[in-house]
Amino acid sequence: MGQDLTALGLNLNSSENLYPSFGGPFADAPARPQDIDYNVPPEYVIN
Amino acid sequence: TDVVDTDGFAEKTEHLFRHWVYTYHNEMNGRDPVKYFGSFVNRMNFLGVLKGDEQLTKFFTIATKMCIEASYRNLADTTITQAIAKTKTYHWIDAYVRLIALLVRHSGDGSNSNTKLNLLNKVLGIVVGILLQDQEQLHGANFQQFGYQRIFIMLFLELSAHDAILENISVGVVTAFCHTYHMLRPANAPGFCYAWLELISNRVFLGRILAMIPQQKGWFMYSQLLIDLFKYLAPFLRNAELAKPVTVLYKGTLRVLLVLLHDFPEFLCDYHFGFCDVIPPNCIQMRNLILSAYPRNMRLPDPFTPNLKVSTLADITTPPRICTNYTAAIQPASFKKDLDSYLKQRAPVTFFAELKRNLQISNEPGSRYNIPLMNALVLYVGTQAIAHIRLKNQVPSKQTVASSAHMDIFQNLAVDSDNEGRYLFLNAIANQLRYPNSHTHYFSCTLLYLFHETNSEAIQEQITRVLLERLIVNRPHPWGLLITFIELIKNPEYEFWKHDFVHCAPEIEKLFESVARSCM
Amino acid sequence: PLGQLTLQKEHQIQFQLMEATFYHMPQPCDSERLRNYLQRQPVQTPPHYPQQQLPHSDTFEFFQRLSTETLFFIFYYMEGTKAQYLAAKALKKQSWRFHTKYMMWFQRHEEPKIINEEYEQGTYIYFDYEKWGQRKKEGFTFEYKYLE
């Protein structure tokens, strides 16, 4: 019967694109905001 | 090739590289990283690393091996957890990658992309060589993928940073990585296959190759990477029982395809033919997933709409874009010539013997037929038939698809093939049942015509089986498949319910009735 | 009707290499930059704890509902990520303004006493990320050239 594709951790009903927060082929949840590199203003990168 | 250390070059390189790692972690995060990079390049120059191609190759070879040796050393250190071992390794690799990225970015003058891309391709080639040697000779089954994966992904992220000079070479960078990933395709580096799937489906990589490169120039390259993946998976998926390592890779593939289906359906629409050529015929759900894609600006009418008139739909006469050169698969050229001649003159009948000879490639049950040729032949004959019908200002229907050279060929394939051949032939037709377009329409009429005209219940049963096996798997189901099956069970002309095979088992009968109910 | 197909020799060898590497599966953090403060470290928590992230927790609306303190934490401990970006956006929505020289967030405590093209001066609340607390500062000059 194949897999239940709605149970692979992807929000298939999302109106947004999935790829920007795609956690990867072996992740069963999307990447969280703190996992996603973002082009923030250089001043924010304070180290 | 192994680096021969002539003048203490390796030692100098190691010392230089350690200095760079220190600089990266202690100075580079300050306000003026390029200043430190500039003085480091002077050091490289002073030590003769930039003197020529050979020294540069040696430098990158030694530095890469240092990173990979660190990955094995840290992982073997039982006093630390795997997470810490990885963090320690990445401490080295991320510094190394930053150096490569800065060298690529600053080599040659701003506008000279070639110098930059040549350097990038050189480094990528060196890492590929070390990886393949490592997997084949050094570590074999103890091969560790994470160090290499880190080098590739972090280098790609560094070179994808928001920077005018890097933006200028972004297509070249993506192309370089596609070549690299193609060289490292799972069939070449099975020990790297999970990392490889991570790399080709990384969110930044997907965004670059499918969304940001203008005019979809990255789409063909990406389709080749997916075909590499399907070709590798095919023998393992060909049997129903999947071993755990295969299941994980297969489910990972499904996740990637779901992201593509959701975000880039047109990509799957354009390359579906090449994908279905290499996906094993029994891999129903993955193939359905690809065939279910339809252009985002299209509204699909509900297949269960009562009295849905497919021939009146707006898009039904539009030919779909197919970005695979499928006619090239119709070989040899003499066979293509005879095929065209038959299509034109509907003669000679001896063509069918040649047809069979070309399609059958072995006597080994289960792999008797040339599947790519079957798929290409069916699609080619179908497109010729659509043009032929249109020439007469008609649209595909049970009447207009009938009695033509094209239908002769399809009926010959239906009647004159054995079970296996007919299954592959019917699959080639069913693979065209997608979203509303002229191919879906024609092949739907053709399949229903074959069902109606044949006097062999075995053929009717096999047509039903081919449709049914695509319908009983979990979603998604292609729109064209649904409307064809609904027509078959609803339209009394086909006398579907009279066939014994419809009542062959209670659960089958129940299944047909449940589909029929949802149609009514 | 295609039936089973036995694996050819080369595929068996491929399978062995794949199986060996199957025990060292990549983790999502292998593809992410090392985070200075909060590296992704999956830890097994009791099953009754929420195991999946909260729905919509990656939306601006969600960040707007977070406390100011939480937003400052996210801003300073998750730098370079989408979370930091959303936290900054939510702070601005609460009329905090980022000072690019002091790298701190300021908020007017009352209408400034002096305002001109270069700067404004008055009493402000600011968030001190070293002492980790909000403080009041009187007579502070906020030069616009440092306004992010």
Attribute tags:
heterotrimer, A: little secondary structure, C: 148 residues, alpha+beta, 21% strand
Q: Describe it for me?
A:
The complex is a heterotrimer of chains A (47), B (520) and C (148). The mean pLDDT of chain A is 93. Chain A is 0% helix and 0% strand. With 47 residues, chain A is mostly loops. Chain B has 520 residues and is mainly alpha-helical. Chain C is an alpha+beta fold. Chain C is 28% helix and 21% strand. Chain C has four helices and five strands. Chain C has helices spanning 9-22, 60-64, 68-77, 82-93; strands at residues 97-99, 104-108, 114-115, 119-128, 133-143. In chain C, strands 1, 2, 3, 4 and 5 form a five-stranded antiparallel beta sheet that branches. In chain C, a hairpin with a 4-residue loop joins β4 (119-128) and β5 (133-143). In chain C, α3 runs antiparallel to α4 (82-93). The model of chain C has no long low-confidence stretch (mean pLDDT 93). The chains are: A little secondary structure (47), B mainly alpha (520), C alpha+beta (148). The interface between B and C is large, with 49 and 29 residues. Chain B: It comes from Culicoides sonorensis. Chain B: It is found in: Nucleus. Chain B: Belongs to the CNOT1 family. Chain B: This is CSON005447 protein. Chain B: Residues 157-516 form the CCR4-Not complex component Not1 C-terminal domain.
What is the element layout, followed by pairings?
The complex is a heterotrimer of chains A (47), B (520) and C (148).
Chain A: no helix or strand
Chain B: H1 9-26, H2 33-46, H3 53-76, H4 82-106, H5 113-138, H6 146-159, H7 164-168, H8 170-183, H9 193-200, H10 203-212, H11 219-237, H12 244-263, H13 265-278, H14 284-291, H15 333-345, H16 351-359, H17 371-391, H18 405-416, H19 419-430, H20 438-453, H21 457-471, H22 479-490, H23 506-519
Helix pairs in contact in B: 1-2, 1-3, 1-4, 3-4, 3-5, 4-5, 4-6, 5-8, 6-9, 8-11, 11-12, 11-13, 12-13, 15-16, 17-18, 17-19, 17-20, 18-19, 19-21, 20-22
Chain C: H1 9-22, H2 60-64, H3 68-77, H4 82-93, E1 97-99, E2 104-108, E3 114-115, E4 119-128, E5 133-143
Antiparallel strand pairs in C: 1-2, 2-4, 3-4, 4-5
Helix pairs in contact in C: 3-4
